[in-house]
Amino acid sequence: MNLKSLLLILISAGTGTGAPVDFARDVHPILVARCSGCHNGDRGQGGLSVNTRAELLKGGANGPSIAAGDSAGSLLIQRVTGKLLPRMPMSGEPLSSAEIATLSAWVDAGAVWNPSTTLASRKAPLALRKPALSSIDEILNLKQPPVSDAVFLRRAYLDVWGLLPTPEERDQFLKDGAADKRAILIDYLLANRDHFAQHWISFWNDLLHNDEGVTYIGDRRSITPWLLTALKDNLPYDQFAASLLNPEPKNGPEGFLIGVNWRGDVNASQLPVMQAAQNSAQVFLGVNLKCNSCHDSFISSWKLKDAYGLASFFSKDKLELARCDIATGQMSSAKFLYPELGSVAEDATLEERKAAAARLFTMRENGRFARTFVNRIWRKLMGRGIVEPADDMDAKPFNEDLIDWLSWDFAAHGYNVNYLLRQIMSSRAYQLPATDNKQEFSGPQFRRMQAEQIADAISSITGEWRVKVANGPLPGAYSRDWKLKTDPLARALGRPMRDLAITERLNDPTTLQTLEFVNGQALATLLHLGALRLTGQPERVPSNIFDSGLVRTNAVPVDIDITGLNELHLLAVDQDSYDLEKVKAGWASAEFEGPNGVVVVPPTGKLKPKAADAKNALLCNVPSDLIYDIKGKGYTRFRATFAVDESSTTSDISPAIRAFVFSETPNRRQLVRVEGAKPVPEPPKLASPDHLISRIYQHALGRDPNAEESQIARDLLQSGTAGLEDLLWAIFLSPEFQYIS
Q: CA 278, CA 307: separation in Å to the nearest integer?
């Protein structure tokens, strides 16, 4: 059988009929979604544009792309089938058999093209539309049976709280015989605003380039306190976005518009006001302005003047257009991406322009606003958007009625995010078994837990949580992973640098992930400490008796009671210095007070002082540990001043260190005192190895171990803590643990 006959059979089988291919319905969406990103307009890659029939017939550097009436002899078909390499498209999934068959049948039928259609001409309608059908399940008409209660429970907990259900929560739900227990569970999860906010803040941190504990080359401002409050209060989404676009003075989330202010000269397309335009358009409207912030885009219809028009809403001064970083002499005025919705006066103040931007983005007539958010939430819960890619909301949705109805319903209910989440999670669509079918919707996609979820899951199972440390001399707090500075494991699992809006994490399996799971220090430490805690022998963590907080160029006085102590450990540790090897710090005027007055006692320890001046300054490298033996001396107070040496305070060294005093050998893993409860209660003390094994399986995987797994686990536990580490490692590396099914 030849290729032409095979493809005709496939297209007939894919549609269920032998009906002719319709260009607008069948072909145009494929060319838009899979081809036009690289081959559109005058600058299409390889000189090829797929924007019109004439351009396809003309082709590019390799000749005509299609031969009307001959699909087998057409370069387009040879490329998408892989008969001629490289296979197209070069990025993303290959075209499905049905898509290839559609294109081939269209070419064989003469490549008929609607004369008025070009790929750049499609724009999703602005106005909201209410379809006749009135629910997700009516629109999709899915008949498959839903997942089991156990699978639904695990999925719902991870999606709303980012945490796994405990064995006790699992037992309670499985034993509940109420017909509406899934709806009750959804309401219960949504009602816990703290757990909700602690999980969903990661979603918003990505979108709003917000982060904790991260040092960028340039300045940035955190919006975390505002964002947490907004999530806990279920702030309506239109008010949420308006606050970001037009923040209130002092207490508003101004960091979103400020962006990252890079040090020194930057490209004109990366000025803070241009970042504000790019980020707001991408996040709230599904429009990518990055290309046309530098020049007219050759992958969409957006122009350089469109990016500058939107940026002008956020600029105090007039903006001069720069094409490829070369000034054009043309000045821009504030112009919204969809001018039919309105604009702002030419002489408006900056405050008036930001208020106008907030109104234009969020007004009910701007249906693009609701559609973009609905699509993002659907994608978050289902693994794939109704429109893909999510940052091109002009692409054709897999079901127009679905996104139109969800968007209309969301707006009609006051942009209530809880309501939208409940609508989707209550549907049969959400409760179907997970699938890897990317060609048509038949249920949620298999989704890997995000980096923060994996870390939190491990901590909740073992009871071993990392500690959030403040810059000041304050106690630390046990914390969920989103609050902490990212580590190599989190980066390998896709937690991004947030110096711009991130709308999609890179979560595909990588070699780096494998290396971190197998040999990474972050996971190894967490499993070791977790195994100790589960077996009732957690690491001992002495408390410090002095904490300087973060020290850069400031001097910190030390005056502490040491009555009855036998020794002192004076530590200086690095916090995030730029050039640690050049950092020197000192304990100046170090002295002890006792029965015989004030005395100076020379230190002994792992690092001898490099120098000592007349004022008893003990100058040391960092890290350092100076040990004083004061047993039986009767000392009652220790006084000193801790500071960075002047020679280390230059910007090329940029010291950031911290000093501690302990009365016994410290635990280097945890130097800061910790106060407060853990994010979730610790697992209970268990009576037997079998109980421990059963609990770990129920908590991690949502099921009991089978007989073979139980025996392997018992054998491992014969080796004590090391065996338990191996068991935890094997479970946490398994796809069953890492994926939301």
A: 7
Which residues, other chains included, contact 21 with Cβ-Cβ below 8 Å and sequence gap of 6+? 11, 27, 102, 105, 106, 109
The secondary structure of residue 215, as a DSSP letter, is: -
Using CA atoms, how far apart are residues 500 and 145, in angstroms rounded to an integer?
Answer: 41
Residue 229 tokens, joined: 């409050």
The per-residue pLDDT for range 11-41, each reduced to its tens digit, is 333 333 345 777 877 887 788 777 876 776 6
As a whole number of angstroms, the distance between CA 633 and CA 630 comes to 6
Q: Return the structure tokens found at 526.
A: 């967490």
On the CB side of 200, CA atoms within 13 Å amount to 27
Taking only the tens place, the pLDDT of each residue in 137-192 is 999 999 899 999 999 999 999 999 999 999 999 999 999 999 999 999 999 999 99
In one-letter notation, the amino acid at residue 527 is L
Q: Domain 546-662 is in which class?
A: mainly beta
Question: Rounded CA gap, 63 and 65, in Å?
Answer: 6
537-564: buried (b, 16+ CB within 10 Å) or exposed (e) per residue? eeeeeebbbbbbbbbeeeebebeeebee
Per residue, what are the HEC states of 216-276?
CCCECCCCHHHHHHHHHCCCCHHHHHHHHHCCCCCCCCCHHHHCCECCCCCCHHHCHHHHH
| Cα 497 from Cα 499, distance rounded (Å) | 6
Residue 54 CB contacts under 8 Å (≥ 6 apart), including other chains: none
User: 341, 346, 350, 318: which is closest to 246 by C-alpha?
Assistant: 350
Task: Tell me how far apart the alpha carbons of residues 546 and 557 are, in angstroms, rounded to a whole number.
Answer: 10
Question: Over the stretch 479-516, which tens digit does the pLDDT of each residue have?
Answer: 999 999 889 999 999 999 888 889 998 877 888 888 99
Crossing angle, helix 689-701 and helix 707-717, to 10 degrees? 120
CA distance 620 to 27: 71
Residue ranges of domains in the chain: 3-121, 149-191, 210-233+235-362, 366-445, 451-538+679-740, 546-662
Burial (CB < 10 A; 0-12, 13-18, 19+), residue 200, is buried
User: Is the Cα dihedral 666, 671, 675, 680 positive or negative?
Assistant: negative
CA distance linking residue 722 with residue 715, whole number of Å: 12
In angstroms, the CA 485 to CA 211 distance is: 8
At 242, the amino acid letter reads A
Q: Which helix (H) or strand (E) holds 353?
A: helix 350-362
Is 269 in contact with 236 (CB distance < 8 Å)?
A: no
Question: Which residue's entry shows tokens 């040879």?
Answer: 78
- The string over 298-328, giving b where at least 16 C-beta atoms fall within 10 Å of a residue's C-beta and e elsewhere, is bbbbbebbbbbbbbbbbbeeebebbeeeeee
Instruction: Report the interhelical angle of 167-175 vs 689-701 (nearest 10°).
Output: 70
Among 220, 231, 291, smallest CA distance to 255 is for 220
At residue 462, the 3 state secondary structure works out as: helix
Name residue 568's amino acid.
L
- Those residues with Cβ within 8 angstroms of residue 414's Cβ, 6 or more apart along the chain or in another chain: 236
What are 65's two structure tokens?
Answer: 């792309």
Cα separation, 105 vs 127, whole angstroms:
35
